[in-house]
Write a structure and sequence with these properties.
about 260 residues; alpha/beta; 2-enoyl-CoA Hydratase, Chain A, domain 1; six-stranded mixed beta sheet
Length: about 260
């Protein structure tokens, strides 16, 4: 249900492909457990420099929760599933390296929340995105109410969530819901290209830049600058910094030690 592929020299770019085609990648308990487990392993792997989340289904990234499965749950089972699904979304969100979602086709509900848990979203021209949960009596519970609001602002997020509106790729890009729109069927290729570009940079610097941005974004400016200073110090006295300066002066490609 989740295909893991390493790309490039050294396998520094990891692709996580949602692979439950019979349900258009609807999130059931099993795939949620797998996402939580795999992202936990990747977070602890220092060789990983970027993660790309894709789909093996040409018409869907992920259509959200598996409502057929949920329809069979008791209240107790629903709460058990809630814990598993929260670990899955947080697993993507808490990756210490940049994560890029490649969205072709539908990204709805929990599927859109997987994309929002990534740092960048690349969408194919035929993509349709949205958080339609209120239409079936629930709310976005995989981070959608928080992540979309932080991404696009209160009024735009409120319009999407309260109306359960679905957006085509062009409108989603105009509203900053997605970061880039590419020809239909090429989102995966573009996301992997971006990830390869990220992976060529210092892994220590990229990880610390993401850490500073994520931790600082929820604080006041003064606190954010202190967080940035701590991350700068952790980078400035690293082996990557020494290698980067040496490579620049010697006019060669850096060989990052990653520490």
């Amino acid at each position: 249900m989740l295909k893991v592929t390493r790309h490039g020299d050294g396998g520094h770019v990891v692709e996580l492909a949602l692979d439950r085609p019979e349900s258009m990648n609807a999130i059931n308990n099993a795939i949620a457990e797998e996402i939580a487990a795999v992202t936990g392993e990747l977070a602890a792997d220092p060789s990983v420099r970027a993660v790309v989340v894709t789909s093996t289904h040409e018409k869907a990234f992920c259509v959200g929760a598996d409502l057929k499965e949920r329809n069979t749950f008791t209240d107790a089972q629903m709460m058990e599933h809630r814990l598993v699904s929260r670990r899955a979304y947080r697993g993507v969100l808490d990756l210490p390296v940049p994560a890029i979602a490649a969205v072709d086709g539908y990204a709805l509900g929990g599927g859109m929340e997987i994309a929002l848990s990534c740092d960048l979203i690349v969408a194919g021209e035929g993509a349709t995105v949205g958080l339609p949960e209120v239409g079936v009596g629930v709310i976005p519970g995989g981070g959608g109410t928080q992540l979309l609001t932080r991404r696009v602002g209160w009024s735009r997020a409120a319009s999407m969530i309260f109306t359960a509106r679905r957006l085509k790729a062009a409108e989603a890009h105009e509203l900053a819901v997605v970061d880039e729109v590419v020809p239909a069927g090429t989102a995966r290729d573009r996301a992997l290209e971006l990830a390869a570009t990220v992976a060529r940079n210092s892994p220590v610097a990229v990880r610390n830049a993401k850490k500073a941005m994520r931790l600082g974004s929820g604080t006041d400016l003064a606190s954010g600058l202190e967080i940035e200073d701590g991350c700068w110090r952790a980078t400035a006295f690293s082996g990557d910094r020494a290698e980067g300066v040496a490579a620049f002066n010697e006019k060669r490609v850096p060989d990052w030690p990653g520490r």
